[in-house]
Amino acid sequence: MHILIVEDEQHLAYLVRRVLVEERHSVDLAHDGAMGYELAASGTYDIVILDVMLPKMDGMTICRQMRADGVLTPVLMLTARGSVEDRVTGLNVGADDYLTKPFAMAELVARVNALLRRRERGFDTNSQLQIADLVLDMTRHEVRRAGKIIDLTAKEFALLEFMMRHPGQALTRTQIIDAVWRYDMEALSNVVDIYIHYLRDKIDHGFPHALIKTVRGIGYKIEAS
């Protein structure tokens, strides 16, 4: 796979490139935002690993402009700022995932591989997401399973969309709260469990195969099998 790394910290950029090359990926580097945007906007990459703090053009602006240009390449955003607000901002401008510095290389590789699997299976950001016979249509704000329309509240829809954008990925309750509720819900830490129960009742109950899985000790994931 062809990967672009946009990172001005050269030691880190070369280290990440070496790790990804060992994983048999082809990797290009850009050390400033202007060059990073020029390369990313070509749409020729399978994934872009994008630092937030960059000279000439910051990562948030690059990601926002990519999406405005219609470039749907998955973006893994790297940030030294780990606050909920910063992570949510990254997701809102079009990033597909985020990783807070410092990070373990094994986690970066796992997140890259998850995004690449989504791309290969046709789960790129678009107006429809599909897992097995479950289809979520953002344009119509409609969910169907096996052709049957499923009525969801706005929050249930947002939760399902977030999970379907990360198929097969174990999502922690904190990640889900950050992305779906977008503020600190620590006082209501069971809110995710409650809404997962609601979703299961609507999209899994009565169907032969459950799509929403519990990942013991971590959280939840959605996958076809």
Describe the fold and architecture.
Helices cover 40% and strands 22% of the residues. The chain is an alpha/beta fold and 225 residues long. The protein folds into 2 domains: 2-120, Rossmann fold (3-Layer(aba) Sandwich), CATH 3.40.50.2300; 128-222, Winged helix-like DNA-binding domain superfamily/Winged helix DNA-binding domain (Arc Repressor Mutant, subunit A, Orthogonal Bundle), CATH 1.10.10. A 5-stranded parallel β-sheet has the order 2-1-3-4-5, sandwiched between helices. Strand 8 and strand 9 (148-150) form a beta hairpin. Helix 6 packs across helix 7. The model is unreliable at 183-187 (pLDDT under 50).
Q: What's the layout of helices and strands?
A:
Elements lengths: L1 E5 L3 H13 L3 E5 L2 H8 L6 E5 L7 H10 L6 E5 L4 H9 L4 E4 L4 H16 L7 E4 L2 E4 L4 E4 L2 E3 L3 H11 L6 E2 H9 L9 H14 L7 E4 L3 E4 L3
Parallel strand pairs: 1-2, 1-3, 3-4, 4-5
Antiparallel strand pairs: 6-7, 7-8, 8-9, 10-12, 11-12
Helix pairs in contact: 2-3, 6-7, 6-8
Features:
alpha/beta; Rossmann fold; Arc Repressor Mutant, subunit A; 2 domains; five-stranded parallel β-sheet; 12 strands; 40% helix; 22% strand; elongated
What would you call the quaternary organization?
A: single chain
What's the overall average pLDDT, rounded? 86
CATH architectural category of the largest domain? 3-Layer(aba) Sandwich
What is the N-to-C succession of helices and strands? Answer: EHEHEHEHEHEEEEHEHHEE
User: In order across it, which strands form the biggest sheet?
Assistant: 2-1-3-4-5
Dominant shape: elongated
Query: Which consecutive residue ranges, at least 5 long each, have pLDDT under 50?
Result: 183-187
Strand content: 15-25%
Q: Number of domains in the coordinates?
A: 2
**Extended strand count:** 12
Alpha plus pi helix count:
8
User: Which structural class should the secondary elements be placed in?
Assistant: alpha/beta
CATH first level of the largest domain: Alpha Beta
Quick one: CATH superfamily of the largest domain?
Answer: Response regulator
The rounded Rg comes to 18 Å
Fraction of helical residues? 40-55%
Largest sheet: 5 strands, parallel
| Terminus-to-terminus distance | 25 Å
Could you tell me the CATH topology label of the largest domain: Rossmann fold
